[in-house]
Design the sequence.
């Protein structure tokens, strides 16, 4: 049996990948929004890459709180990065 393709494609977005970000600072982890801002800034420095920060709202807002050693934060928006 051949493995199924993991490519994700649709008519609007063409080929795409959905990712999440966080930072591991043992023993703590989290800081998703800080990481997203950092990744968008790095991508914005690349020639021919296009960054739409906070592009699409997903209704999963967290105002920032500790749960054990995890720092949860999310503004509810996902960013979009287009690479050539």
Sequence:
């Amino acid at each position: 049996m051949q493995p199924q393709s993991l490519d994700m494609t649709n008519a609007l977005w063409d080929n795409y990948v959905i990712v999440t970000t966080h930072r591991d600072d043992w023993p703590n982890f989290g800081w998703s929004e800080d990481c997203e801002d950092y990744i968008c800034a790095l991508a914005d420095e690349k020639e021919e890459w296009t960054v739409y920060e906070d592009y699409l709202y997903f209704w999963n807002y967290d105002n920032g709180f500790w749960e054990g050693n995890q720092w949860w934060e999310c503004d509810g928006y996902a960013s979009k990065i287009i690479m050539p």
Notes: The helical segments are 32-44. DSSP finds one helix and eight strands in the chain. The first helix runs from residue 32 to 44.
